[in-house]
Amino acid sequence: MAGLISRGFLGRRRPAEVEDRLPPGQYLVTDFPVLSAGPTPHTPLDRWSFTIEGLVRSPVTWTWDEFQKLPTQTYTVDISCVTKWTKLDTKWLAVSVDTLLAAVQVDPIARYVMAYSDGGYTTNLPLDEMVKGQAFVAYQFDDKPLEPVHGGPARLVVPHLYFWKSAKWIRGLRFMERNQPGFWESLGYHIHGDPWKEERYSGD
Ligand SMILES: Nc1nc2c(c(=O)[nH]1)N[C@H]1C(S)=C(S)[C@@H](COP(=O)(O)O)O[C@H]1N2
Ligand SMILES: [Mo]
């Protein structure tokens, strides 16, 4: 009977498990597309640092060596880009945002975070969506140092939001009282960006 079913038909079929993990309007990729709004920065590790600032009692900065000594976790997560590709089971080694936050005293009026990167990219996130394991700063992908095109030396990963929220070449987090649009958010992309609600553009 299998011979009666066209190859194309079988090719389009996917196990229900995969189907269930694809947010609406997304298709599956197995490669790892590169999407960058500008050139790839190449900050030497001895000049790299990571800072938490804004509405915190006192800002904290880690050098690369200090950052490497922070406790890490491995995460295996699905990622979805607003351009409609989804990649399943991406594997990262990362420091959770919870670990970073343990080093600062956040002002209780802080409710939003601006992630900022080398090259000027920014993206905004609600603080309560960055804690409890929901967001991490990764420096290895697939057991190898994160490649510069994918955000190395380190990038934010926030798997439950569209991948533009996962700032490549991240250098810090700034805590804010009010929500402010980052780079893509001020160019018409959704202020929040939940792929399960198809929050692609402002107005969605
Ligand atoms: N600094 C920075 N971070 C960024 C971007 C960027 O242009 N600059 N692009 C965003 C977008 S739109 C996506 S889909 C992902 C792409 O990450 P990738 O190139 O590793 O697939 O990074 C996000 N983070
Ligand atoms: Mo994207």
Report on the architecture of this protein.
The protein is mainly beta and 204 residues long. Helix content is 11%, strand content 30%. It contains four helices and eleven strands; from the N terminus they run H-H-E-E-E-H-E-E-H-E-E-E-E-E-E. It has helices at residues 7-12, 16-21, 64-68, 97-101, and strands spanning 27-28, 49-54, 60-63, 73-80, 85-96, 112-117, 122-126, 136-141, 144-145, 155-157, 170-176. The strands form two sheets. Strands 1, 4, 5, 8, 9 and 10 form a six-stranded mixed beta sheet that branches. Strands 3-2-11-6-7 form a five-stranded mixed beta sheet. Strand 8 and strand 9 form a beta hairpin. The chain starts with 6 loop residues before the first helix and ends in a 28-residue tail after the last strand. The relative contact order is 0.19. It binds ligand MTE and molybdenum atom (MO). Molybdenum atom (MO) is lined by residues 35, 81-83, 163-164.
Report the order of strands and helices.
Answer: HHEEEHEEHEEEEEE
How is the quaternary structure best described?
Answer: single chain
* SS elements, strand count: 11
Shape: globular
Structural class by helix and strand composition: mainly beta
Strand content: 25-35%
Average pLDDT score: 95
Uncertain residue segments: none
**Main β-sheet description:** 6 strands, mixed
Separate helix tally: 4
Distance N to C terminus: 45 Å
Which small-molecule ligands are present, each listed once?
the ligand Nc1nc2c(c(=O)[nH]1)N[C@H]1C(S)=C(S)[C@@H](COP(=O)(O)O)O[C@H]1N2, molybdenum atom
Percent range for helical residues? 10-25%
Radius of gyration computed on alpha carbons:
18 Å
